[in-house]
Amino acid sequence: MAPAETENVVMTYRDAVRAAIRDALRRDDRVFLMGEDVGCYGGCFAVSRGLLEEFGPERIRDTPLSEAAFVGAGIGAAIGGMRPIVEIMTVNFSLLALDQIMNNAATISHMSGGQFHVPLVIRMTTGAGRQLAAQHSHSLEGWYAHIPGIKVLTPATLEDARGMLWTALEDPDPVLIFEHGSLYNVEGELPAGAGPVDIERAYVRRGGSDISLITYGGTLRTTLAAAEQLAAEGIDCEVLDLRVLRPLDTAAIVASVARTHRAVIVDEGWRSGSISAEICARIVEGAFYELDAPVARVCSREIPMPYAAHLEQAALPRIETIKQAVQRSLGGHHG
Amino acid sequence: MLRIRRFEEKCVELYSAARIRGFVHLYIGEEAVAVGTMQALGADDAVVATYREHGHALARGVPARSIMAEMFGKVEGCSRGRGGSMHIFDAATRFYGGNAIVGGGLPLAVGLALADKIRGVPRVTACFFGEGAVAEGEFHESMNLAALWKLPVLFCCENNLYAMGTALERSESETDLALKASSYQVAAWSVDGMDVLACQSAAERATTAIRGGGGPVFVEFRTYRFRAHSMYDPELYRSKEEVEHWKQRDPIATFVASLQADGLVTQDALDRVEQEVTAEIEDAIAFAEAGSLEPVEDLARFLYTEQN
Ligand SMILES: Cc1ncc(C[n+]2csc(CCOP(=O)(O)OP(=O)(O)O)c2C)c(N)n1
Ligand SMILES: [Mg+2]
Question: What is the CATH number of the domain that holds B221?
């Protein structure tokens, strides 16, 4: 017997994404999943395993290695009345489709004077940390958030992995969903009938009064772990999960900083010209007089990601570097 | 071929022992292609490869030591531990990577050949890629440019029938890849990629044509990978029977058998080769084990060219 809708089920982040896709395919026949190896192979991260058997090759559509063409075709199909979920294996390969995303998906509604709409969802894996080296370790979600006309989601929890897709598919405009590669095996509990979640607001994942740690996606867990350790030292961190990088929930950022008067931004992306820079700017614009210390950032080192484990770890935000940034910001003045 | 086979078998062990990490794509089953082709290249020629490039690097003459050290993430590795299995670079042998973006090496090869052509240097650039890359725009744009400008590129398409789990007939409307290439006015033909001598003569015929100023050549090598796409995959996309069928055509076993049938090699000689190979690989592992880690202070080195 299937568990009752409200009963909690143990599952992984991967299961949650799969359940979200399955829900969507059942709910709406305009929905189909398209991408490299989503069918026969079962998805390069095993997210879509079993869906081909359940829904058939028309709705679980394997594509050739042609990112520009199948992303563009997803845009066309969305304009043509479908609700495609396009999967790009990883953000690294989305660069081959960047023209379609930026010049078509993001522009057509506005450029056509509101005549055409692109209700498309593009999902992709992002991030580093698995020794895959420079060409397979990019974190470009913040960079995509630069583009007006698309929305950028970064589900960091099972609940968001399950619920964001639903809302994204109801959105009349293109939505990009970034799933951090380190999250797929994370286990948690979720109600069997977990439903849609909003794709507008940032959430406070941990309340605190001394400092705001602002993050999203793959670094949420690291940041929460750092906050936990800092709590043992008597430092009470608030952790804000942005969830959505475009449009940014500026009000939530400003409100958090107004409560704590200090902020550290944790972002796996590079620092220069980045989403962390943008958040910093919003704080300066909206909460300048609330600040007791300069805003600090913990980002990836500005280099292509190296293969060797010790170099890669040194290049990424870590619990240790987050703690140091917090301690510097507090400068011994807390408590 | 045996060097490559044994080297990669060791890689599997070392991966299981967590000495090597990241993505590792094995060439086992496809060795004849790289080995045969490299015979047709001179020391001045250039090679561009993919993430499945241990075999190409070894056959090209990149020392086993520096490849192994690279996979161990050591500073003695050919890319100082920054690249790993997918990014073997070696200036001494004009080995230009190790590219992990499917199709990413093709335009690069076109450019290397363009530089040679402009400078009047009579060299060939050999570019290896899988049949999966043929679906990418970069393949088509590169074929056209190379043909249009009559550039000295040898396009080596390693058709192992699958791009991860996608079979050729599920990704190409026209599965005759040589025909496809010839639509760009590129001389193109196919060859049995399990037969090292056939690979060699196909490559020699191609390089002779290229050196004669005839512009690029495309060779489709019909081959098969015996192992998973990467270190592990559930292989839901092909049958055990199919894999077994291709293993009957193992390029090493069949070549040895034909040498033996013709009385060209003794068991003694074969044993000696096996011992030499084992010794070389053991030495490479010992070298990699003994290697050092790049100091973390040097993390940002080489982001830009170091001028001294
Ligand atoms: C542009 C791009 N898309 C997707 C991938 C993921 N990927 C890596 S290898 C591969 C299959 C490539 O197949 P093929 O070109 O036939 O080479 P083979 O692996 O069979 O040697 C895929 C899909 C990638 N590396 N680059
Ligand atoms: Mg292939």
Answer: 3.40.50.970
